[in-house]
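Lab notes, practical 5.
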Amino acid sequence: MTAATIPPIEGKTTVNVPVEQAFTVFTESFTAWWPHQYHIGQSDVAEVILESHEGGRWYEIGVDGTECDWGRVLVWEPPSRVLFTWQIGGDWQFDPDPAHASEIEVRFHADGPAQTANYGNPNGHVIRMKEASTEATSFTWDIYAFGTGADLDKTNINLSSLDDSNDFSSPDGMAFARSSHAGGQGKPLMWLQTDDGAYTDVTNCMMLAAQPGTVGDGGARTITNTASGGATATQATRIGTAPGANLRRFLVGPVECEITGVDSTPDGRTLFVGIQHPGEGGTPAAPTSHWPDSQAGGTVAATLRPRSAVVVITKNDGGVVGL
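Output from the prediction step:
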């Protein structure tokens, strides 16, 4: 019997970012965008990795540390093209025979100026919104803080006048302190967490503590953005007053991690912080991080793999964490 030929399945999506950024996010951040309910291992997925070279593996790592191959990289041509195999059979198991594999090819190209010139803020920002009442159908807003390096132009880039104690990039999560303790009352404490790809040449992902003020404590402003090619574009916006001492870096995570998730005990005296995929740029043979084992000090084995974990934080005096 002759096997049926399945025609190629094609699709297209447009994202309003430069080609280089689209390629990087797709290939280096599988864990962030891949639906975690799809896996072949016995345990839940902790990471999905596509190695950045021809012949590289495409595989999952379970929360129990086990690895399951999905395929192999056939072509690696950043930032325009990547081709890799799908070697998971109808029984939802890995098939090592490449003759049975399907191929997945992804091409990246610019559709127009919006995809070639990045005029926006690559470091992200935090928006505040305020409704007049619980029945409101509209809201007022401004930008509490623009992410950026402290040393950048305060006229058009470091618009929130961040300094070495509070500069950040790629805010990705936030939570307010529980109202059951002093940190969540009056002017509640806000925890701000980052998942950074734009500022990791300076520091790692972090969590900051803030008292973010109120909408309207700043004013309107027009800024000029300059693209990498030198072209400029202006943008009107609303910026809150500079956070100053009301925004402070609380902790910095291990290399190549994401800070994600925060909560406390009802009394606020114990804080729990999630550290996800430390050392995600490494390989099993050459890990780029040994966290959390490296926290203990001393020498650890060169091939000891990093692990995601939840950090438990208390104050020496037993008080509310963050105050």
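Observations recorded by the TA: The helical segments are 19-28, 30-33. The first helix runs from residue 19 to 28.
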